[in-house]
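U., I forgot to send this yesterday:
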Amino acid sequence: MKKSAGINGFGRFGLHLIKYWLDRARESTYSIDYINDDYLTIDDAYKILISDPSVVFNKYKIKLLDNTLRFLAADGTLYEIEYSNSLKDDIPWLGRPGFMLECSGKNTIKRDCENFLTGNTKTVIISATSWDCDKTLVYGFNEKAYQPDTDKVVSYGSCTVNAYVPLGECMHKKFGILDSDVNVIHNIQEYRMKDNYTLNRKFCTLEKSGPNLLPFIGNHNFVVNYTVVPYTGVSMIDFRFHLEKCPTRSDFITDLEYLIREGDLKGLYSMDEVDVGAEIYNCTTFSSVFIKEGIKVINNSVYLPAYFDNENSVNRYHDLVNYICGSQNITK
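Result:
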């Protein structure tokens, strides 16, 4: 039986999550039965669903019925989601679903999520970095460390954490990482463009989360350069790994292709032959997509250019929720 889940927060992440889940609802272990947003009304949500240029729901007929969003798939399957527009402590369906998917970006501290743990709700999964959650679980890296009895408030990490950590773990296991750095060119939300946003260097959660999760990197051998740009499309992320056992470029590409095709990186990453720009990776199912023609090996370091749709890191969030729901015997 599918586990019942509710989303708090219908911003960019929540929007992507609904689309990603709908496209995989048949095989998912969970069902999204509720949405709450403290700012957007159901009419606002409906307008976004039918008009967003990046997250397109053209495979579904969408209708409103009182406080319910209805999605009718082409095969006749109907999905109904109860919608509310309340402050987080006043959510009318609080305690009904087994899982709360905290996607507002506002509740990243554990105590701010604990009010969700009431009634049937046994687990909160935060779609952002949380420094004091019970555990950070990155799908494809440590999701099997989940313990339902003790991990009540968990974080999925972040878009950059999901893009780097499984790859870094794999590179270290195969080649041995001596030092590493990551260069991120990150977009902003469209609504912020009107504020004359300029080029800006910022702190990246990967700087702290990476060493917290991977014992072989730290302040002595790991650097993240994180630049936010006034641009709303798909982002760039380039990796460098200084390796103890550095292969030739040809051998590295052969190894990487195997890891992506049937090894530890299968389903998480992909690789394209040539660079045709960022926008073809809108709503990609991968944590990042490497560009083969840009791969270099210089002085025992591998340089690995990639694109990633940071907004759609919901792909790994969905995988994590799907795993957690599948590992618990919680019903509605």
